[in-house]
Amino acid sequence: MVEGKYDLQKLRSVTDDVIIKTDGFGVFKNPGKRDLIRRYALSSGVIILTDSDSAGRLIRKNIRGFVRCPEENLTDVYIPKVPGKEKRKKQPSREGLIGVEGFSAKDLETLLSPFEDGAQVRGEKLTRSVLYADGFFGGDSSAVKRKKLLSLLGLPEDLSVGEIIGASGVLFTVGDYRKAAGAAQSDADAERITDIKITNTTDPMKAGDTAGSEKGENMIKTGLTSVSFRKLSVDSVIETAVKAGVDGIEWGGDVHVPAGNVDAAKYAAEATVKNGLEVISYGSYFSLGTGADIFPVLDTAKALGTRNIRIWAGGSERQAISDERYAELVEEGRRIGEAAAVRQMTVSFEYHPGSLTATAESAIALVNDIGCENIRLYWQQILKDSPESNLADLKKVMPYLTNVHVFNYVNGKQALLEEGDGVSSWKAYIAELKKSGAARAVMTEFAKDGLPENFIRDAAVLKELLK
Q: What is the pTM assigned to this prediction?
């Protein structure tokens, strides 16, 4: 699949296979052509060979959105980013890059050689966990490292984590990756390259590194969720946070900072910063599937001065809805992710029973199916599960994790962290968070009897566990 007629003509000199042109963005308004692409993808698979500029990337992403077929049925092949213009054009393209038509037949034959005789040669696939462990996402410096890695692999330097995984085993081998990864690392990090067996996986691992920071055990911050004290004013919530000595606040959209109330957001933001705290996140009560508009939420988060927004993943668990309904929610999540990415924001799903993130497996599947680098997850313990089970799930979602909600229940009632198994459970969870080395916040959600003094006690225990 290519963009225009000149691309098609050039490719005709290389292959006798069926070639579909998207007519640029025209495919978005052509239901018949979209259906044709979908049918080819489901039957024999489709190779996407669009230009390497932003328009080509947008076409790729939208094709994946409407085709909705198994990941292995769509394969991305990329031309290098080469400055210049095609001979037929008087002026270069907007980004000054040569398109598919500008490459020689020999170059295109090389790009398509893994697909000769209609059989794609597939090797071992990378996983998101490996890229995370090797420092290519999840940290402030990971984007720079990833750019160098892609350059060494001969791929466009702006590929996402999901696109790197998709290209692995097709455009480069695991051996190629290990060599390039070693060269891409700084001397201090080179020995960290993961030396493990990478096996084929059905998990595309599509999330990115928008929420991470530099590695280090001391990168975990403490916070208060304003929903814990719905009856208190903004100033009283801030006063409680200051007394507790936490680092920041997640302002909730239910009472204190309603979506669309930019003035309330600005007041909360200014008062928070003035008191030496930071706005960790915007805890919106936006949920997939309700028909609500995400843009007031984005505007409010911007006014708060935060780059992370917490939303809900619908009101039903995965097994309770049809595949068609799930696909609709995934598409909505993708639109939200793209809208947030324009504003350089991360959107994190609440990890909660009764939603599409009720389990680690369904939460990971949702993030991967949406396929936006800036769509991530929160985590909290599930009360019906054992501490051991919760710890296992925390390990599973760790590569996708932004922040954590902290609470403790004893005999079905909100308790102090120091009561029951609270200290032992959270000691284990925090040890795992420290091990990951990524920057994130652990925020106490609600307090025993709804009392600020009990939150302050919990904050003291939490800070002690973080030492």
A: 0.61
SS3 444: strand
Q: Does residue 358 sit in the same domain as residue 440?
A: yes
What does each of the 467 residues of the chain score in pLDDT, given as a tens digit? Answer: 899 889 988 888 888 777 888 988 888 888 777 877 887 787 778 899 999 888 888 888 888 877 777 777 888 888 888 889 888 888 888 888 899 999 988 889 888 887 765 555 556 778 877 888 788 876 667 778 888 898 888 776 767 777 788 678 766 888 889 888 888 875 435 444 444 444 333 222 233 333 333 333 458 999 999 999 999 999 999 999 999 999 999 999 999 999 999 999 999 999 999 999 999 999 999 999 999 999 999 999 999 999 999 999 999 999 999 988 998 899 899 889 988 988 889 999 999 999 999 999 999 999 988 888 899 999 999 999 999 999 999 999 999 999 999 999 999 999 999 999 999 999 999 999 998 888 899 999 999 999 999 999 999 999 999 99
Number of domain units in the chain: 3
Measure the CA–CA gap between 447 and 161, rounded to whole angstroms.
38
29 class by beta-carbon count within 10 Å (0-12 exposed, 13-18 middle, 19+ buried): exposed
Say which amino acid occupies 35. D
* 121 touches 114 (CB < 8 A): yes
Number of neighbouring beta carbons within 10 Å of residue 154: 12
**What CATH number does the domain containing 253 carry?**
3.20.20.150
53, 83, 118 - which closes a domain:
118
Domain containing 180 equals 128-192
The residue from 94, 118, 142 where one domain ends is 118
Nearest to 440 by CA among 257, 226, 215, 225: 215
3-state percent breakdown (helix, strand, coil) of the chain, nearest 5: 50, 15, 40
| Amino acid found at 9 | Q
